Each structure stands twice: as C-alpha cells, then as structure tokens.
Amino acid sequence: MVRSAQALDQAQGSLSSRHWNHVQVKCKYCNQPYTSRGVASHERSCLKTQEKKKERKEFAKLAMRAVEAQEKARHHKKKQRAKEHASAVSMQPLDQSVTDIVSDSEGTRVVDEGSAGPVDISHYDYYEGDHDDVGIARDVADPRQRSGSDTSMASIPGPVPYNSARPAAHPDIDSFKTEYHPNSGRPTSVETFSAFGHGHAQPKFDDREPWHPFASRADFEFASLTHKAALNKEQTDELLRLIQNIVDGHARLTFRSHNDVSKAWDTAATQLTPFEQHTISVDHKQDKLEFERLFKHNGTRYERFIHEPWTADRWWHIQSKLPNDGVPFAIILYADKTHLSSSGIVKGYPVIARCGNLPVNIRNTTGMGGGRVVGWLPIVPEDAEQSGKLSYTNIKRVVWHKAFLKLLELVIIFSKTGFAHHSDFDNIMRWLFPLILLLSADYEEQCVMALIRRTGSNCPCPICLVPTAKLSDHAATYPIRTVEDAQDCLKLYQEDRVAGEEALKEKSLRPVENSFWQVRHSNPHEIISQDPLHAFHGGLFGKHLWTEVKKLLENLGRSALKQVDNQFTAFPRWRNLNHFNSVTNISYSDGNKLQDISKQLLYAAQNVLTQEEDKAGYALLKCIASYLHIDMYISLDVHTESTIAAGEAEVLVFQKHMADYIIAARHTELGTKSWNFPKMHSPKHIFQDIREKGAARNFSTRPNEGCHRPLK
Q1: pLDDT for the residue numbered 104
Q2: What is the 3-state secondary structure (H, E, C) of 157-213?
Q3: In what order do the strands lie in the sheet with 2-3?
Q4: At what angle do helices 217-228 and 233-248 cross, to 10 degrees?
Q5: Biased-composition ranges for Basic residues (predicted)?
Q6: Which tens digit of pLDDT belongs to each residue from 351-373?
C-alpha cells in the first residue's frame, strides 16, 4: 500500500510498530516510494543528489560559454593569420564571444553570433548519464576539442561571472603534434594532452602455456630458481635427486621456511668450537614501431621532444634510406669483459643484445622482451713477453672483430635484403631491415669497436678527430670520423706499410678491418654512444673530480675530512639514494654509489671548502655544481629542444669553471693536473647522442651491467 505524507499522522496511531515499518511513503524530491523506515535517509541523500545535479547544470552552462568563446577566438586567429601572416592571438572578453542559449519545446539550442540560425545541441551530453544537463556544442570531429580534453577546459578557473573580461588561452597550448616519416604514408596528427599516448588498445596476448618450451610450469620455475641461485651442474643434479627422493617417499623434508633452516644451522653450530669476542683498546689522538617526430605546444609554438630511439634523428635518417615499405629492425649491442668467478681468475666476454623497437620499460629489463646474451667473445691470454707490443695489440683486435663477424653473419645479409616477418600479435606482415642502432660500452670497449688507439695517441676519441691536447676544449668542434677515411688508410697500409702506418698513426687508427663496416647503416663512429655510468659517474666524477676533492680535504687536515664524513652521515635518508656513514677513507668503484656521492657532496663540503679557507677547493665545488647540472640534463627521460640546448650551454659553463680551478690549483700542493683525457671530452658528444638516439637511458650500460650477476 502507498500512502501520502499527509496521511502519515493518521495512520501512525492505528498501525502497530511492526506493520508501520512496511508502509511505503513517497519521497518529496523524486516522488519514488520507500518504506517508512528508510524514507528519511533517502530524502537526505536525494537532496544532496539534486543539489549536485543543479551545480553540474550551472557548471555545464558556464563551460559551454567558455568553449564557444575559445572557438570564436580560434576562428578569429585563423582569419587574422590569413590576412596579416602574424602569430598574435586575439584576446576578447568572454561576454563578447558568448553564444546565446535559447530553449524551446524542441530542446536546447545555441545561437552563434553571425551564424545563419540556431544550432541544436540537445544531442550533446556534458555529463554522461544525465540527459537533462546542458550540452557543449563543438566540432566533435576535431580531436583538439574533445569534451575530455584539457584544452577544452583550459580557460575555466571556476564558477565566476561569465561577463568578466578574461583573455582566451592559446587554443593549441599543451597539444601534441606527431609528424610521421613520409614513407609511412600517415598524415601529421594533433592530439590533446589527455588523448596523447592513448591509442587503440593492443590485443591481449593469450598464451595458455607461458612456460613453453619447458614441459611444465614446475620445470620452468625450477630452472628459473637454479639460474637465479647460480647453481652449478653438480649442485643442480644433487637438488634434483633430493626432490625426487622426497616425491618417491624415500626422504622426509620438515623445513617449511628459511627460519627453519636458520634454526637448524644455529643448533648445529653449538657443536663446534664457539667464537670469542675480545675488545682491543689502543690510545690514539682524537679524530613503436613507427618512425615519428613528436612535438608539444608550449603556448608559443610546437617544440619537438625526444625520448625513445624512434623519435630521434638517427632513426629518421635510416628510414629515409630504406625502401618505402621497409622498417628498421634496430639492434642495441653491449659487450664488456667480466669476472665469472669470485676469485677473478675466470673471465668472460658476453655480448648482450636488445631490441630497439620495443619501449624502454620492456627493452631494459631481463624478462620477456629484455636483454639476451647472444654470444661470447674469446679473450686472448696475456703474454708477459708480448704484452705492450703493437703487433700483439693488433692481434687482439683481429681476434675480436673476426669473432664478432660470426655473430653478425645473418645480420649482414638481411641488412642488405631485408626479410619478411609476420607478427601473430597484430597480424601484420613487415619487411624488416636489421641494423646496429647503437653500441653501449665503456671507453676501453669503444676503442676496440671503433679500432682506434687509446689514451696517449694523437686522436683518442672514437667519434671525432680531436687532438689529445684539446680534449678539455668543448667550445671547438673537430671533424667526425668516417668509414671511408678509415678504409682508405687501411688500403694504404696494405699497399705500403710505412706510409700506411704513418697515416693510421696520425688518426689513431688500427690496421684491422672493422666487422661493423659490413652491416648497412651501422657506421661504428655513429653508433658508439657516451655512457653516463662509465664516462660521467664512474669516470669524470669518480676518478677525477672526487679524487681532487679528497686531496684538497687532506691538505686541510683530519678535522676537515672528519667534518665532511659527519655531514655525509647526517644527510637525510631518501628513497633510491645510497646513505653513507663515511666516504673520504673508502675507495668506491661502483658508478651508482659515486653518482649518489656527487649528489650529496655539495651539501657536505660547502662549509669546509670555503672561499676563505681554500680558494682552489671553492673553485672545484663550482665545477662540481656545473657537472651536476649537466648530469641532471643527461638523466632526463624525455628531452625537448630547449633541454638539449640548455645542457650544451652548461657544458661551456663547466669548461669555464674548470679553467678557473686549474689556475687556482697551480698555487696549491696539488700542482697542475692534465685534464685532457677522453672522459673529459664526453660532454662534447653526449647531447648530440641524445638528439640522434633518444634519451640517455637508451644507451646506458646500467641495464647490461646488471646482467653480469646471473652469468657468474
């Protein structure tokens, strides 16, 4: 039974309490029936809903007026560009460009000033699910004016009177422009901030047996565990025998966790002779797969930005040299010697490959789509009698490149012809051309890859022909090395050893044929990249700037060393930042720790190496501050034209501070140190590498250094 609120009092006296709970009463806001017990709670909720709905309607009306104002401002701007060829944006008060809203029996309409008549907007819903709200009339075909975009609401600070004068925001601010390579056949597109990067959803990869080719999931998990634990053959066999005995019932395992094993160890340890602790006291003094260019509107113009390799210049240039239907299959290679045993006696030379077509968050991992060991290079044993001789050094280079040539055999063939590849993932047939996009290595390996002579030669840079005496001069630019020049010198050497050796020595080249010459679009001097880990964190800072700081602190005495250590200890702990209790008396070789030391050093030493106490030390801290600015720009995951230019400008600032420090250091016990070494020259090329190959994390050795541990 349904009763009105007016009959409530009459019914209340005649009904029992139990029966009253089932009487239905209509809500005074939505007119829907509810039980008498719950109607009060519903009416409070319904009132809030009605108030919110009213606020949404008012906001929708304001939003509609603002959007129409933007549309009018954009239209006015286009007309002005056509007449005056200028980039000025028309600034009109909001109330002068607002369209009129009228309502009739047919629905809500917008009458635009100067238009032929009203435009029906009743079919545009501002708030999904509420068709009573006022819609926003716009050209929905324009992706820059979608209802969910940031641009469409950019000029709405809140519910303010619409007739107040406000300048219209630039219609393209925060928009992204994607410029595709002409061979792709795709037109340039413009997307809003909210829409950029959210393309069509990729089909889900349905793999019912992800452990394939292992026979079962248990087999895969066992193999993965033995690999992570680095078990050898005997240990793996012993573990398998133990598991099989347990399964067959011939053995009983009571351990359930690591704690159980630890307790058993502790119990067994009591049967051995215990250790005794003694204190010794000593007195001492106190002490995508598309090739594209991306742009983002910054309020004035579209500025290009770079992150993945396919957004950088090298990919674009390679694509221009391929057939129209060809697609680069970009290979990133890393090679470095490592110790395979804890004693350091056994060494290995793994080669790790990564696919440059995959996004960096997949490519730089060790899981599916990550790096893989594709080969092992031979290591020529050292010979005390032959060590240091030019002929023996050249033999090592010959062995390296002949071995690498075996790894590149198929790459060489397909880099010229390409090969068809059908992807089951997206059902697309592609014509792939494999090539070496970039080489990730330390300076020692770079010299082997580029076949140049190392530090102390005439031109020790693997990229350009800078003389040794000018390695610290970042203002000057020298010719880039070319394959043709190296081949000409090698040909001369084969015809005339004396004249050829002179030509090779002048340009610091080796008389060996480079294996990368045979791979199309893989010039070794172009694909070699500056590695931030070795060139900057472990090199320029770790081996040089940080060493200079410690020497200057030693000159000031133990109190200065102690104060810096104490201030490192007091430095607040931070996520992903190593904390140090003492740094001045410990030698670090880990580039990651040295990077964290560089970030904390200025705070720990600024009141020790002061201009009054040590002019050279103060000048060195200014160098380190500039170095940190360079490192900050290098570390960015997304670069714009502005950030790259700012990084290059900071390199020149760093050079100036270094010149001041060199002059100041001459008047100290340190004397004059030569700063003309290859890693001092790295800042000259690092930002060009970013232009050509994308952000520095694309060619950093950090992900590859992490692959060494499972190999040991």
Answers
A1: 42
A2: CCCCCCCCCCCCCCCCCCCEEEEECHHHCCCCEEECCCCCCCCCCCCCCCCCCCCCC
A3: 2-3, 24-26, 33-35
A4: 140
A5: 73-82
A6: 999 999 999 999 998 888 888 88
Residue 683, H or E segment: helix 683-693
Q: Among residues 653, 647, 682, which one has the least CA distance to residue 537?
A: 682
Q: What confidence score (pLDDT) does residue 585 get?
A: 87
**What's the per-residue H, E or C state across 379-403?**
CCCCCCCCCCCHHHHHHHHHHHHHH
- HEC sequence for 433-473: EEEEEEEECCHHHHHHHHCECCCCCCCCCCCECCCHHHCCC
pLDDT in tens, 306-320: 999 999 999 999 999
Show the 3-state SS of 457-514: CCCCCCCECCCHHHCCCCCCCCCECCHHHHHHHHHHHHHCHHHHHHHHHHCCECCCCC
Identity at 112, one-letter amino acid code: D
Output the average pLDDT for the chain.
79
Q: For 231-280, what is the HEC assignment?
A: CCHHHHHHHHHHHHHHHHCCCCCCCCCHHHHHHHHHHHHCCCCCCCCCCC
Report yes or no: 397 and 379 within 8 Å, Cβ to Cβ: no
User: What is the C-alpha separation between 489 and 504, in angstroms, rounded?
Assistant: 6
- Per-residue model confidence as pLDDT tens digits over 589-600: 888 999 999 999
Dihedral sign, CA of 46, 47, 52, 57? positive
Q: Which two tokens stand for residue 131?
A: 């068709």
pLDDT level of residue 678 (50, 70, 90 thresholds): very high
86-99: average pLDDT = 41
Q: Which of 657, 598, 681 is nearest to 632 (CA)?
A: 598
Distance CA 654, CA 625 (A): 9
User: Model pTM greater than 0.70?
Assistant: no
